[in-house]
């Protein structure tokens, strides 16, 4: 266990070769001042609906404030997750596994692509069937620190509610019925990735996460106070500066398929730094495994706007996704008509 988690050691004197990405796979981010839109959800609904749709079309990423998730729930989630990664290795050992079929697990430095490079990241992944009405579900999460389980339970319910409200706003703006994404399209487990990026001895040659697109419907990221998220934008990479109290929102491939390409799943990556650890919490809303995801009939209009993606069950999508990888070009090639 001591050698498996990056966060088990207080410091790392040198970057192992297995974490070094080739220069062409880690181009530096732009110095240009391109900021993600910040949308105040307390404004009039017509304005919010328009801004959410426009931000989704323009960048595929935006931040939301005044979103209704209690500040205390956010702070408790952040602090309890940070405390988890500070625990002694023996307190985390029972959750460490490389078995990707385990719904709740702790893992580290996953191999990237065919080159064999590894991410500079530890991750606690938690599956949250919704609604959370089962003690067995809660008991499958780590029991240390003691406040982690109640923090997760309070946070995931509020974060999912926010995600569903954003989906309703997108439906209204795109001309779909407001409840289009209710039911099977959003009925899978809510999956939470608690990503921890320890200080890195050579951050210019490493990546916390390589460029990828999300596989799910919609993602809500509690980014923490330490910057590290970068988003692909017009052939460049832009650094995301977290806004206090905000969630960073982006779309997954399932939303792109369902909206027939009106909204895009955009590539993003995470970079470590030498000075400080960064902990972020990504909340993924997913379809059920057997849900058939296809372009909405309302967004397909004959020869002028034909279906751009083939219908696929989420189970089949994931099988292919795991085979071709998370890069946007590979996924598009597999599912675009």
UniProtKB/TrEMBL annotation:
Molecular function terms, GO-annotated: metal ion binding; oxidoreductase activity
All copies of domain Fe2OG dioxygenase, residue ranges: 187-287
4Fe-4S is among the record's keywords: no
Pfam families linked to this entry: 2OG-FeII_Oxy (PF03171), DIOX_N (PF14226)
Record keywords: Iron, Metal-binding, Oxidoreductase
Gene3D superfamilies: B-lactam Antibiotic, Isopenicillin N Synthase, Chain
Family: Belongs to the iron/ascorbate-dependent oxidoreductase family.
Protein name (Swiss-Prot/TrEMBL): Fe2OG dioxygenase domain-containing protein
Organism of origin: Setaria viridis
